């Protein structure tokens, strides 16, 4: 509730207050304002409770999104392997068909040659009265020919059976691809549903945060106004009209100044610079401390703050960099290390921490999804997450910190 217009009006009519009854009436108004202050304080506590509930809902929704994205990536890998197997089966089937056609042609040629010789069976060779030695040689030739034809037929049967088996495997792989595709579509639908649920939670949380900020601002302003009102009521009859008019003009100037400040605050926040280079794979025998000045920031985007500068609205200073980037942009590891934390954390959303040794760690927060789990090794340039605005962050981007022995260090001193 804004009492400033009320105070301005009160300052204008104070010179007309010439009796104790009027002062008593102002005291009654003060009591009413105090009662309203107590009501606002209770509403503030209720807002804090609602914010806690919305934050819990946000955590569950963002965990679901992270899991769905990770499973969708695994399905894509399985589908790629199935396609590779299917191509290999197709190549085997083509080779088998070529071999079968060659065997069929060879067998047809052998049968044709046998027919042209008049079948040349062993009984005919014995009874035609030919030279016995020649007949023996012809019999051996026919025996070898018959055995070769039999082996050709058996090989043909084996290849036909193999072709049938390959065709069956091809059908099975095709069915597997179809199943994987259906699973992928189901995962996509689940991801979209989780995103919609997350957007609803974020909207609810944003409204509650704005309400809380308004309530805090109003409470502070009303407390100051009430204190000033009590002091002025105690010296109503002693003040001169000129001083009252001066106070009214001062209040109007203060109101105009406040409007100017609100107008300036409504302007969109601009960045301090733009990062265009991201980590790439490299190998180095140096310890992490030897890489200072040669690293790259984990994502391309707009740098929104300076390390060590005070945050908007006062309070703690920036211990890292907020890089504004499009949602879904890949976040890359700045150097080799091991994942020691990969989970949702209040105030940071989906957070992943990589230990680089020598007491150095890098922190990547406000992500949409986390690709790596605790214990996994990462190399420079490895995708480890995707950009989001988890944890209640109003803008999509990555909040990035570097720490040595748990103390924050300026990341810009470590990059090219």
From TrEMBL:
Write out the ranges of the annotated region (Disordered).
244-285
Please provide an example of a Pfam family that matches this protein in its UniProt record.
Answer: Peptidase_M23
Biased segments, Low complexity type? 244-255
Note the Gene3D superfamilies from the entry.
6.10.250.3150, Glucose Permease (Domain IIA) (2.70.70.10)
What's the superkingdom here? Bacteria
Q: Which residues form a coiled coil?
A: 23-99, 153-239
Protein name, per record: Peptidase M23
What is the protein's species of origin? Thiobacillus denitrificans
Q: Name one GO molecular function term.
A: metalloendopeptidase activity
- What does UniProt give as the signal peptide span? 1-20
Q: Which residues form the M23ase beta-sheet core domain?
A: 318-411
Record keywords: Coiled coil, Signal
Q: Which InterPro entries does the annotation name?
A: Cell_wall_metabolism_enzyme, Dup_hybrid_motif, M23ase_b-sheet_dom
């Amino acid at each position: 509730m804004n009492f400033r217009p009320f105070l301005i009006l009160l300052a204008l009519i104070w010179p007309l207050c010439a009796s104790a009854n009027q002062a008593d009436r102002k005291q009654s108004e003060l009591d009413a304002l105090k009662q309203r202050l107590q009501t606002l304080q209770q509403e503030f506590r209720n807002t804090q409770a609602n914010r806690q509930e919305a934050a819990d809902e946000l955590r569950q929704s963002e965990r679901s999104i992270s899991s769905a994205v990770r499973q969708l990536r695994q399905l894509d890998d399985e589908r790629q392997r199935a396609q590779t197997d299917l191509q290999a089966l197709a190549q085997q089937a083509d080779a088998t068909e070529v071999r079968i056609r060659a065997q069929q042609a060879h067998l047809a040629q052998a049968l044709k040659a046998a027919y042209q010789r008049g079948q040349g069976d062993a009984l005919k060779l014995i009874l035609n009265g030919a030279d016995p030695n020649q007949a023996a040689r012809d019999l051996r030739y026919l025996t070898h020919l018959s055995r070769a034809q039999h082996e050709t037929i058996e090989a043909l049967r084996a290849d036909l059976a193999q072709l049938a088996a390959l065709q069956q495997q091809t059908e099975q792989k095709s069915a597997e691809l179809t199943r994987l595709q259906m699973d992928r579509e189901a995962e996509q639908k689940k991801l979209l549903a989780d995103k919609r649920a997350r957007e609803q939670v974020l909207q609810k949380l944003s409204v509650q945060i704005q309400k809380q900020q308004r309530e805090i601002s109003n409470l502070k302003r009303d407390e100051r106004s009430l204190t000033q009102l009590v002091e002025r009521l105690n010296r109503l009859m002693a003040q001169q009209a000129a001083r009252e008019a001066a106070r009214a003009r001062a209040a109007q100037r203060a109101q105009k100044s406040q409007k100017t400040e609100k107008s300036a605050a409504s302007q969109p926040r601009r960045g301090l610079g733009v990062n265009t280079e991201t980590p790439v794979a490299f190998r180095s025998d140096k310890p992490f401390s030897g890489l200072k000045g040669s690293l790259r920031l984990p994502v391309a985007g707009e740098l929104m703050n300076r390390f060590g500068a005070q945050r908007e609205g006062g309070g703690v200073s920036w211990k890292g960099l907020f890089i504004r980037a499009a949602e879904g942009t890949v976040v890359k590891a700045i150097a080799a290390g091991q994942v020691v934390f990969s989970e949702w954390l209040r105030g940071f959303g989906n957070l992943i921490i990589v230990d680089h040794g020598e007491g150095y760690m890098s922190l990547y927060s406000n992500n949409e999804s986390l690709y790596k789990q605790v214990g996994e090794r990462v190399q420079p340039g490895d995708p480890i997450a995707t950009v989001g605005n988890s944890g209640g962050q109003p803008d999509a981007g990555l909040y990035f910190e570097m720490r040595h022995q748990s103390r924050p260090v300026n990341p810009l001193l470590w990059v090219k």
